[in-house]
Design goal:
548 residues, alpha/beta, DNAb Helicase, Chain A, Rossmann fold, 2 domains, nine-stranded mixed beta sheet, two-stranded antiparallel ribbon, 46% helix
Length: 548
């Protein structure tokens, strides 16, 4: 097939109404990019003019714009001579005004699916796959053409994929191997891996606890970590403390009587399911200033403490562009994941604290909708949520922390592990690191007294039972800690195994360079930001991969 024939065939696979409706929807509501339901791609648009408009909208949306109009698009394209000429030749401003007038948000899903179907046809044909049984552009008989169109309109993207998969499966039966294995050698690329690890060890941003930083290898991208605790013990305070530790570059050290720099200024999101913003803000002020929250709530402190509190407020205020809070009460997994994706894409958030995994009415409805099964158990509902969080962390390559409640059986158990979780022990299956925080119990006191007699200055009031560490050296260990609920701070004491034998776990202090943990939300789009020539912009437009 010649290049001209290919071009003509591609044009046939364009549904211009679908293109108009999708482009209008994205201009009207850029946050659609963050919605887990959709997967937009520049290759969904076959004509150069549509690709240029989409590319501009895509960039503006990922730059943080929540409202876009034709002026923004026009201004963005002006520096790029060839793209802007195409835009003007197609009367781009009039086109955008027209499609916005025609846009019907109630039909967006229909036209999005239509667009993806035609885009999929183009992709399949570009790979040499004959799709004429699905859509044959060579049919000239009007009646036959109408029948074909009606059949195609009833098909979904998955129907098309399934049809082609059946063809491949049949071909494999006749001509291919039955094996789907991907084989390799144990020695493949080992030297490259060694050199990569020498340059960049497997280590994320530090936690409040240097001991946990050692055990967990920090707060690593792609990981889901979970801390469980009884009601009222301090799950939210741990989340707030760790979030502040990442986002606020200084805190007041009461022992040193001075402000201490952490070097951390990461983009952080707290998603709270129970508390409102002001309730969390007093915890933040307490953590940064070192003044117990109760004193802040009373409004009584010394002049020196007020100075510390004022500086803490200044530090928190200065973090407004990277430290975010959302309160949500009735939610399902789609709500939470879409929220995370939205902040990831528009605010470049890399660290998320979701407090906490629990049932809601919407989650029950979601479970029924997705599984077609009525009356799902609590464990099944919560497992869906934990799975969604882990998948999100992996997909976006971000760090997510979450928490769960404990069942009523935790008080007298010797080994606090996943069996103590409210809902089901399967919740821990999706986590990379998991622990249970318990107040010191009678069974812990003999161990504490033994070690305190050896010279430990800080007497622990909590025990963190760490029962899962993926890629970790230790399992089923106990980190004895002093957890200051008033300031949301955690101080290491010592570590033992499950039998109370002390373990030689050294603390890890991560040296953090300028914005060392930050990363781009979208490398392709960020390359547009640095583009100074039309060639760079064209390269960006032409090198975005198609996914479906």
């Amino acid at each position: 097939m010649s290049a001209n024939e290919t071009k003509d065939r591609d044009v046939v696979y364009i549904n211009k109404i679908a293109v108009m409706q999708v482009l209008a929807g994205l201009i009207k509501d850029p946050l659609l990019f963050a919605n887990n339901k959709y997967r937009f791609d520049i290759n969904d648009f076959q004509e150069q003019f549509h690709r240029i408009v989409y590319g501009a909208v895509d960039y503006l949306a990922h730059s943080g714009m929540e409202k876009i109009d034709y002026i923004d698009i026009d201004k963005f394209l002006q520096p790029y001579e060839s793209q802007y000429k195409v835009f003007c030749d197609n009367r781009g401003i009039e086109y955008i005004q027209k499609i916005l007038e025609m846009y019907d948000p109630k039909k967006f899903d229909y036209y999005y699916n239509t667009l993806k179907k035609y885009s999929l046809l183009v992709l399949l044909n570009s790979q040499g796959i004959d799709t004429s049984d699905l859509y044959d552009s060579s049919i000239v008989n009007p009646d036959e053409q109408q029948k074909m169109q009606e059949r195609f309109d009833k098909m979904s993207v998955n129907d098309i994929i399934t049809t082609e998969e059946v063809k491949v499966a049949e071909a494999k039966k006749l001509f291919g191997s039955n094996s789907d294995l991907v084989e390799g050698s144990a020695g493949d690329s080992l030297r490259e891996l060694k050199e990569e690890l020498k340059k960049a060890p497997v280590m994320g941003m530090p936690l409040m606890s240097p001991i946990l930083t050692t055990l967990y290898r920090g707060q690593r991208f792609g990981c889901l970590n979970m801390t469980s605790a009884p009601s009222g013990v301090g799950k939210t305070r741990i989340a707030v403390g760790e979030a502040c530790h990442l986002a606020i570059p200084e805190y007041y050290d009461r022992d040193k009587k001075q402000w201490v720099s952490t070097g951390l200024e990461e983009n952080v999101l707290i998603i709270e399911t129970e508390l409102e913003l002001q309730e969390v803000q007093t915890m933040m002020m307490a953590h940064v200033s070192g003044i117990p929250e109760s004193r802040i709530l009373d409004g009584h402190y010394s002049s020196e403490e007020e100075q510390r509190l004022d500086k803490a407020i200044e530090l928190i205020e200065a973090s407004k562009s990277r430290f975010f809070f959302v309160s949500v009460t009735n939610f399902d997994s789609d709500d939470v994941i879409n929220l995370i994706k939205s902040y990831y894409m528009t605010r470049h958030v890399n660290y998320v604290f979701f407090d906490y995994l629990s049932e809601s009415i919407k989650m029950l409805a979601e479970g029924t909708r997705k599984t077609k099964v009525q009356g799902l158990r609590t464990d099944q509902i919560l497992l869906q949520m934990s799975t969604a969080l882990k998948d999100c962390a992996k997909q976006l390559n971000i760090y997510i922390w979450t928490a769960t409640q404990l069942s009523g059986d935790y008080k007298n158990v010797k080994e606090a592990d996943s069996t103590s979780l409210r809902g089901a022990k399967s919740l821990a299956d999706k986590t990379d690191c998991a622990a249970i925080l318990l107040p010191v119990r009678d069974m812990d006191n003999p161990i504490i007294e033994t070690y305190c007699a050896k010279g430990f200055e800080i007497k622990p009031n909590f025990v963190l039972h760490v029962y899962k560490i993926r890629r970790g050296t230790y399992q089923n260990i106990r980190v004895y800690t002093y957890f200051d609920r008033g300031t949301c701070r955690m101080y290491d004491c010592f570590v033992t195994d499950s039998n109370g034998v002390m373990l030689p776990v050294e603390p890890t202090y991560v040296k953090v360079g300028e914005k060392a943990g930050a990363k781009k939300a979208n490398d392709t789009l960020e390359s547009v930001l640095d583009a100074t020539s039309q060639e760079k912009l064209e390269d960006v437009y032409n090198n975005i991969d198609f996914e479906f």
